[in-house]
Write a structure and sequence with these properties.
Length: 224
């Protein structure tokens, strides 16, 4: 799977927008934002295109129908943000905090998320097209009814995550942690690869538990 990288101009204009500068249908184009605090900002149809965000704060932001195109986010804080029905295209997110992030109904295309924390993140009814998560923590994340077709997850921690009713044809999971994950019987058509036999056993055990099958030792059946 080839994922297109963000297309950014060689020179980006430095900018430090304040929360009051962000409103419905505002467009931020070809800008470099560093250490900008936009926590709790609210807007509809905000567009960020061709931008690089470094150490920016978007925690608690409510950006309905956000358009995020050809943009890089590095070391950003997006915790507890809500981006309903966002459209994310050719975006790279690295070393960022997205704990409690909610993106119901969002669409991600040609997007990579690396070395980031997304514990308790919610992607209900989201659609992923050519997306890769690498070395991310997704403990207790919620993927209910998401379309993960073809998505790649490498070295991710899904402890306690929920996958009920997902579409997962051709999705690939490599060396992931599955302890306590739920809804794994919905991962029909996915490929799960693990370097460690223990990780393979953990996944197999989680699937059998989700299917209502009990694994036990024959000695425990005495008298049955």
């Amino acid at each position: 799977m080839k994922i297109a990288a963000p297309r950014l101009r060689a020179h980006l204009d430095p900018a430090s927008p304040a929360p009051d500068d962000i409103d419905d249908e505002v467009r931020l184009l070809d800008l470099a934002l560093e250490d900008v605090d936009l926590s709790d900002v609210e807007a509809e149809h905000l567009e960020l295109s061709g931008c690089r965000l470094t150490r920016c704060k978007l925690a608690g932001s409510d950006l309905d129908k956000l358009i995020l195109v050809d943009t890089e986010l590095s070391q950003c804080d997006v915790a507890n943000a809500r981006w309903s029905d966002a459209v994310v295209t050719r975006v790279a997110i690295t070393s960022s905090r997205l704990t409690g992030f909610a993106g119901p109904g969002m669409s991600l295309q040609h997007t990579t998320i690396r070395d980031s924390v997304l514990d308790f993140g919610s992607f209900r009814f989201a659609k992923f097209v050519k997306v890769e998560f690498a070395d991310c923590r997704l403990q207790s994340a919620d993927f209910v009814s998401a379309d993960l077709t073809g998505t790649v997850f490498r070295g991710c921690d899904f402890t306690g995550a929920e996958f009920s009713q997902v579409k997962a044809a051709k999705a690939v999971f490599v060396d992931c942690i599955w302890e306590g994950a739920k809804g794994l019987t919905s991962l029909v058509g996915a490929t799960v690869a693990a370097s460690s036999p223990i990780d393979t056993l953990t996944f197999a055990s989680a699937v059998t538990t989700a299917a209502g099958i009990t694994l036990t030792h024959p000695d425990e059946l005495d008298g049955a």
